[in-house]
Amino acid sequence: MPTFNSRVLMLAAGALFATSACGGNASVPTAASQVSAPGASAIVPDDTTSILKNLTKDVEIGSTVDPKNGDAGPRAVSIARSTFGLLKKGQLLVCNFDDSAGSAGKGTTMEVLDPAPHSKPATFTQSTKIEGCDGDAVTATNQVYGAGMLSGLVSRFNQSGKFEKSHGSPIEVPFDDADAFCGFAYAPEDIYIADSKNGSILKLAFVPVSSGNVKVTQVITGFGVNKGSGWSALGPSGVQYNPTRTGSRCNDTLYIVDGVDNTVVAVSNASNLLAKDEIVVQPGGKKFKCVDPSKTCATVVYSGSPLNAPVASALLPNGNLIVANTKGGNTLVELTPAGKVLDTKTIDTSSTADIFGLAATGTTDSDTVLFYTDTKTNTLQELEP
């Protein structure tokens, strides 16, 4: 996470915005606020225009093979939101899950690529702290939290790729991680971590905000896991945070893909997740026990076909989601926050899962593009209009 001084420089002076909106079991929020300034804003309706349907061109951005040690097997992909250190705004950071011999879970590198065809990978970092790299959350100031499935750690690297600190227990087998920052002055910036051993979501938070005191809490538990290893593992993953601001309010919704139960779950007012096991997923993945539904709870966005062992997801600029299946062909599924399927697109009909990382960028429906990792070719690809 950013240090106190860097956050002050980044955010400048401002007030700490208090929790104000309510959540619950009734519906999936679309623009409800949990981190907000005074005042109310209207709920933004779902955008039912399919983005995926318009992404007809598949372009190779570049190889993801590490130029120094040959690590391959691209898994997670994230986009830098600012220019700081080794990362420039818009660049892509990719995790390698395999080593040069193709051993699953032995990869220890992250690569940086420009968002343009013929990009060459550059090593951002190499460390056994991220062995089995399957998550690369980038903060607002380009600090990176790498998740290692085999190392069992989530580790922080500074803007130059230098290792700073690792976090272990209660993390067991980190399966994915995502940054969550709404953008308001002195609003919390947290890292959410999915665990494929115990089916939990953990929150790495600075308490109090902007301090150097890090707290890791298991805030959600009960998601299904298949106890698989390597590429075959399934559990909660595809974590996405919606930071969209409508007036003085932040969406503050956390999305989680459940690959065992074939669901996509939305957690309302995610910043209110503060204590151990605030949400418990019931068997089957479709019902939830929440300590205080008025503050935060979960709902099912979508369940069942065409979802088929999904792992990766991307949040589109318009608030919709694209989810990638790992069974039944490498099929992408586009959903609205209300659970309407807008389109599906099969990238590769092979029975071997190839797509484990997704990320989207753009400002409008017409200029949105989708990046995906292809483990079959060890490349980063872009779907564009």
Description of the structure:
The structure is a single chain. The protein has 385 residues and is an all-beta fold. The protein has a single domain (4-12, 20-384), classed as Neuraminidase. It is built from one helix and 28 strands. The strands form seven sheets. A six-stranded mixed β-sheet has the order 10-11-12-13-19-20, with no helix packed on it. A four-stranded antiparallel β-sheet has the order 1-28-27-26, with no helix packed on it. β7 and β8 form a beta hairpin. The two termini are 35 Å apart. The model is unreliable at 1-43 (pLDDT under 50).
Describe what is shown at a glance.
The chain has one helix and 28 strands. Helix content is 2%, strand content 41%.
Number of helices: 1
Portion in beta strands? 35-45%
How are the strands ordered across the major sheet?
10-11-12-13-19-20
- Following the backbone from N to C, one meets helices and strands in this order, namely HEEEEEEEEEEEEEEEEEEEEEEEEEEEE
Sheet with the most strands? 6 strands, mixed
Binned, the helix content reads under 10%
Instruction: Kindly state the number of beta strands.
Output: 28
Low-pLDDT runs: 1-43
Descriptive labels:
single chain, 385 residues, mainly beta, Neuraminidase, 6-stranded mixed β-sheet, 4-stranded antiparallel β-sheet, disordered N terminus
